[in-house]
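Last lecture ended with a question: if I hand you only a sequence, what can you say about the shape of the protein? Today we answer it with a concrete record. The protein is Response regulator. Below, first the input exactly as provided, then the predicted structure, then a couple of comments.
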Amino acid sequence: MSRILLAEDEEVLRMLIMDTLEDEEYDVDEAADGKEALDYLQNHEYDLVILDYMMPVFTGLEIIEKLRGGNQTFQGKIMMLSAKSQTYEQEKIIQAGADYFMAKPFSPMKLVEKIEEILNEV
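The predicted structure:
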């Protein structure tokens, strides 16, 4: 079973995504801000990390930079969710080390399809 960390500060959206992923039988941990996400990442291994761009304490972009920069060895995939969907924002996110970008708003089922695609890559 694939293990996923969802970091999203908007509670209603986080609950919707959590319910959707749990219905699909993914093992999911949830974080409400960037610090909580980093705490989970220091103590657990994940196949996929789904980050909101704009979160309290650390943004999704700052988390990516911590995971992919320096001596960090995070080997999982990273997906960024953001309402900032301009091309230059997407490029900045990918250059920082995200593997995928999904613009908000999105369909929960489209998110599940993308997650299945990501986790089934060889």
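Comments.
1. The chain has a mean pLDDT of 92.
2. Helices lie at 11-23, 34-43, 60-68, 87-96, 108-119.
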